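Q: Hi! First time asking for a complex rather than a single chain. Here are the components, and I think there are two in total. Is that enough to go on?
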Amino acid sequence: MIQKFLYLEWKAFFRSASFATNLALKILMGFVAVYFILIFLALGVGAFYILKKSNLDPIVTVNKFMIYYVIVDLIIRLLLQKIPVMNIRPLLILPIKKSTIVHFSLGKTALSFFNLVHGFFLIPFSVVLILEGYDVLSVLLWFTAIFSLMYINNFINILLSNKDNLFAIFLAMAAILGGFQYYELFNVTDYTAPFFDAVFNTYWAFAIPVLALIALYYVTFQYFKSNLYLDAGLSNKHDVAKTEDLTWLNQFGTIGTFLKNDIKLIKRNKRSKTTVGLSVMFLFYGFLFFTNGIEAYNNPVMHIFAGIFVSGGFLITFGQFVPSWDSAYYQLMMTQNIPYKGYLSSKWWLMVIATVVTTTIASFYLYFGWQVYLTIVVGAIYNIGVNSHLVLLGGAYTKTPIDLSSGKGAFGDKKAFNVKTMLISLPQLGLPVLLYWAGSSLANANVGLALVAGVGVIGFAFKDKAFSMIEKIYKSEKYATIAAYKQKS
Amino acid sequence: MIQVNNLSKTYNGTTVLKIDNLEIKKGESFGLVGNNGAGKTTFFSLLLDLIHPSTGNIVNNNVQVNTSENWKPFTASFLDESFLIGYLTPEEYFYFIGDLRGQNKADVDALLATHEEFFNGEILNNKKYLRDLSKGNQKKVGIIATLIGNPEVIILDEPFANLDPTTQFRLKKIIKDLADNPDVTVLVSSHDLMHTVEVSNRIVALNKGEIVKDIQTSQETLQELELFFAV
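A: Yes, that's all I need. Here is the structure of the assembled complex.
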């Protein structure tokens, strides 16, 4: 029976829409994958020696921060790892035992990328430990325990799936713990490190996570098995809908009509909500640059880079998928009497409003001084003036249908990659950095900022020109776009 | 009203639709029948400029549809669920379409009120998004949305499919009422010969992309069609 399942999985994998991209892209993706595997391997091998060089005991340091590794892993899983319940439906009426179906479905998640990726760090790290003369058995037990924790996360995620906003709670928890630790108010690692140390130093402590994993697997199995009904575990969740008129937007005419729709789009779909969450994360991205956390980041040229990201998180994550947000009903849009200009303006206004709001919220960066906040404001001006047009222009070439009901893919869709979009996105970050660098090395930092802001203002003046250009692309790509959106991923 | 000239659509060397000449007059109630793959949806998609014709063109009320967009204000259509916006409630969807067609909330409400019976209490004020409605109820929303703003050309692809018997009956009445209006041209496609014969005064049968029958509806039409499709 398992054989037959594996056969189905094999077909599903090789016939998935994302696999059917062109050869060049596949090769490129292959290179990217190899690159990341090498990075992880290097990190796994290098972590030991880097820590050693900074006069830290490698295993003690890793154990100390292991709690964060575990929490972050869980957050990422809650956000991205999905349980493929739909694939189970057709199996229910076939002569297959329910327990076989559940075992297989759970077993399948064990092979998920989210579990295997840890191997790239943990295996080389463990090998280095052994080579460096640590007790082989201790290392193996430690490795088993840590991997069990990763699998515990895997099953926790399954049990907690379909519960919205949990990841935000965990994220807030991690942020608070991290903040407390940074300012030395409360150190959670004081309480967790002894456990991880015990796993390494004793021969019995590793059993705790392993037994917990076995127990959790049993619980998950029972839970799934008892919920294997179309109206229970396999049901699609229905939200209670409320009609919203948003009449205050009527005063904006056609733009108001589309804005109403866009606001509902963002509020009511998982994918768009994930995008908003992502742009909030971008808001805090600046901490990496302004806190001296990473030395290489703390130079003025990198600051303007941060300024673009902090104020433009939403603009970049949302804008690059216009008009794909409307892909599910693109045929409707194409048969209605829709002025492209109104449609585009609505998206543009949405991005502008979001950028202004983010920049206002980002005023907490004033803590790091006027210069830092000024950089962010200049970034916002450039975003509104130039980047808003560039993302819309790039989006016009992006023909990836968006599945609004799934949070997956919010971090960038591999199918959404094409050369045109990439070329268009280069000046989004490259140009301001270049301008700022030129300005600050020829005169001073403020001249650099003025240059960037100036280009932003000029870009703003070309709004109509940019819009009519995008409109032309929409028209010339119309049939190809409709055909592409029809192919459900 | 609608004039088809030398129209054809070819995919990878296979011709899926070939109509040399077809004229649909203003006020006509036009029924399109045919088996799966006969080209019904392809024809409607070409008429709505959703796909590009391989040769020829369609002229809708003196507007050539693949070169100008001026047919949009007077043409309304519902082909499938991809014409619905899943995350809206039915009311919001109707108002959105109304906004695009220059109808205010009161106009839309008045139209919805006349079709309360058709909705059968399952559509309005139901606290459900369109994506969570059943196929049949989604169809009801799509069909009524085409009536917003008094369009002159109404295109419905398989409107009877997925509807319950009572609703099919009510839909027939709606289409017949539209057909009685000399200013409205209705185009309906269906697998169901009986329904089509009842609501249309002219029926065209497609087979493998070509017109095989073009008849004004009469007493004998149903028999004639049944004879043709019975193999």
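A: The mean pLDDT of chain B is 92. Let me know if you'd like any chain examined more closely.
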